[in-house]
Amino acid sequence: MKTVEDNGFVRNQAVIQARARVRNAVNDQATVEWVMTQVAQGKKMVTIARALDVDYSLFHQMMKARYSEKLAAARAARAEELVEKNLELADEIQEGRVDAKAGNAAAGIRQWYAERADADSWGRQSSVNVTHKGVIGLHLEAIQQLANVPLEGEVEDAEYEEVEDRSEGPDETVPEDHPLL
Fold first, then answer.
1. SS3 string of 81-145?
2. Cα 71 to the center of its chain, rounded Å
3. How far, rounded to the nearest angstrom, does the alpha carbon of residue 142 sit from its chain's CA centroid?
4. Domain count of the chain?
5. How much is the pTM?
6. From the DSSP assignment, how many helices (H) and strands (E) are in the chain?
7. The domain that contains 99 carries what CATH number?
8. Mean pLDDT by 10 residues, the chain (181 residues)
9. Looking at the domain assignment, is residue 40 inside a domain?
10. How far is 5 from 116, CA to CA, in rounded Å?
11. Strand pairing report for 3-6 and 9-12
């Protein structure tokens, strides 16, 4: 096993060559177009990586990083093709040329892939509306609600009782050695 120093790191020569093959494949436009064609035809990325004789994980990671839009378009094209096949399959089931259970299973698998490959077009659409006012919003809402609540009973004439002011002398209920005094 031959090793070389690469930017201060000792690396295996085979690993360096494998990474170089991946970089060359990802940077070659003809190879990238071929990969996109393969993806649109339904080939798996691991199969494509084997055909190119490159490391799958690094290849897949670099392709996603550089060509995510092209990969999404290729997968969307594949999803469209699968949906068309499902429509043809539905016709064959209706005409009695294909067993209904087997046809439904095949259609389900194709639909599953189409939902994941192009969720915007073929995924199950759901919407959730969540609002969060936060603590301040809740307090303001409570104040607004209380402002609109009429007071019970009207206070027009009130009777007040005068209370004698006892501030002249010390309070006899609090001992003089109290810690707050």
1. HHHHHHHHHHHHHHHCCCCHHHHHHHHHHHHHHHHHHCHHHHCCCCCCCCCCCHHHHHHHHHHHH
2. 18
3. 34
4. 1
5. 0.56
6. 7, 2
7. 1.10.10
8. 61 82 92 94 92 92 93 90 89 89 88 82 69 67 74 63 67 64 59
9. yes
10. 43
11. antiparallel
